[in-house]
Please model this.
Amino acid sequence: MVSFSLFDTAIGCCAIAWSERGVVGVQLPGRDAAATRVALVRRYPDAHAAAPPDEVASAIDGIVASIAGERRDLADIVLDLDGVQEFNRRVYAVARTIKPGATLTYGAIAAQLGEPDARRVGEAMGRNPCPIIVPCHRVVAAGGKFGGFSAPGGVATKRRLLAIEAAQTEAEPTLFDRHGGLNFELRPGGTKTSRA
Model:
């Protein structure tokens, strides 16, 4: 039996679904609470609304804190991935080791798993039933590009989650990339000369 509950976060109303074995799914926000509920019930048609037990309430607190910008490690939340393919479970296990503020590429995860095709990792991430707990937003394409994101809002949601965590990818400009970089060059001996 699957139960679910809605909860508010800094990016909108989310939902969580659980069985007696652990969390089975997380739904990121739709346009409003009703849309979030519809999306979750579409995934789990036999689920019923319920008050979360202590373990799930603790998971909700961790998700809320993470989305608010606290660097929470949610790796201890128990998941029930009973219906999930073995390869995908292995991908999610690696993704759960990525700390807040860090990123890992699809290719790096594939290499850790001995998988020659990084696209399989991307496909697994696209089927991730538990975003935030399995931080698929921290998995990026080669060269630090954002890659895809199957949650509502797509890549814009992924960017927002990474910005909340202050994650740096190579696709983002650094201090030295902004506005044409520094307006001077260093000469030997440490003296500055203006470029203008």
User: Anything to note?
Assistant: The longest strand covers residues 12-19.
